[in-house]
Amino acid sequence: MALLFISNMDEPEAWRRELAARIDGLDFRLWPETGPVEEIDFALVWKPKPGLLAGFPRLKLIQSLGMGVDHIFEDPELPAGVPVARIVDPDMASQMSAWVLLEVLRHHRMADAYAAQQRDHVWRMRGLPDASQTTVGIMGLGVLGADAARKLAHVGFRVTGWSRSAKSIEGVTCFHGGLGFVEFLAGADILVCLLPLTAETEAIINAETLAVLPEGAFVINCARGGHLVEEDLLAAIERGHVAGAALDVFRSEPLPDDHPFWDHPKIRVYPHVAAITNPRTAADQVADNYRRMVAGQPFLNLVDPARGY
Ligand code: NDP
Ligand code: OXD
After folding, report:
1. Is 9's pLDDT higher than 90?
2. Which of 8, 105, 123, 264 has minimal CB crowding within 10 Å?
3. Cα separation of 236 and 228, whole Å?
4. Which range of residues forms the domain containing residue 68?
5. pLDDT at 12
6. Mean of the pLDDT values across residues 161-171?
7. For the domain that residue 290 is a member of, what is the CATH number?
8. Is 272 a catalytic residue?
9. How confident is residue 264, by pLDDT bands cut at 50, 70 and 90?
10. Which residues contact 234 (CB under 8 A, 6 or more apart)?
11. Half-sphere exposure (CA, 13 Å, Cβ side) for 208?
12. What's the CA-to-centroid distance between 276 and ligand 2, angstroms?
């Protein structure tokens, strides 16, 4: 019985240490040193190569190293019937909400304009924008979206959210489903994407949806690059309909060197760092799932393969 770690992003030694401290006698193997494939029961993965997991005939759980699982479901040869679990970590929700607040406030309080003024030694007050008259619309009201929504409401913004099923969150006006989508978009001065990437949400921020946003809206994408049609965002900024964007995720990561986002004066680029899995805070739930596997008990934080999240 062994756990196989597959990731070229996450720190294997930190995971080995944290898990060994929680699981007696753990047999931790690091891809590609798998040993006999039939000894691998548990795969702890970030972006496994398509077809790779199909090579382990005794797998009992595929555990994502992240909160998202699109990097697992995009494998056309994913072994059918093996459950998939994700990380659900309050520490990551705090990291994400802090990043969303940072980018909402940078835009709202005109931080870039004041930085330019400082460069030019210009003392000019631009007037104080009113948070209570500014609507931040959050697409996705799950673990991350709901946390960000509550914190933004606490700071004084008008906050709306959109999800698949109906929600009730104090201080947040909630919309859901296809019927609520246009009304939600039409009110969002600042649009934040915190959806999972699925067949339904792929390319959801496109020319049509951007056109529904109020004039001068700001776009924040910290979910997945696949949610955004990048050329449609560039066109909407070019037209002046969208004021700018803060982007943490991209269709191609790392962002190619010649990508127009790098030098765009109205786009801020981050290298997928809004929230990062921390082995210290996430190892408990992974160890718990490992013990559940050994004991034949139901797993924590399973996702629904039919929904894709
Ligand atoms: P959850 O699964 O907890 O929540 C997803 C939310 O999206 C739910 O509210 C769900 O609605 C809603 N949703 C899903 N599909 C649709 C749809 N078709 N229409 C409307 N609403 C929909 O996810 P998390 O909050 O934990 O994470 C969201 C994503 O953030 C992850 O999947 C990942 O891709 C990304 N992420 C990015 C990170 C970064 O550093 N940039 C870090 C961590 C995660 P309902 O509640 O009704 O099901
Ligand atoms: C995740 C991520 O899904 O970091 O956890 O993107």
Report:
1. no
2. 123
3. 12
4. 2-89+277-295
5. 96
6. 97
7. 3.40.50.720
8. yes
9. very high
10. 260, 264
11. 4
12. 7
Q: Rounded to the nearest whole angstrom, what is the distance from the C-alpha of residue 295 to the centroid of ligand 1?
A: 30
CA of 25 to the centre of ligand 2 (A): 29
Q: Which of 108, 158, 224, 227 is catalytic?
A: 224
Q: What's the total number of domains in the chain?
A: 2
Among 129, 94, 101, residue whose Cα is nearest residue 114: 129
- Smallest CA-to-CA distance from 94 within 139, 146, 163, 158 is with 146
Q: Are residues 251 and 193 in the same domain?
A: yes
| 99, 48: one domain | no
Do 116 and 64 reside in the same domain of the chain? no
- Read off the pTM: 0.98
The pLDDT tens digits for 41-66 are 999 999 999 999 999 999 999 999 99
Residue 290 lies in a domain: yes
- Which residue minimizes the CA distance to atom 4 of ligand 1? 142
The CA-based angle 179-99-272, given to 5 degrees, is 90
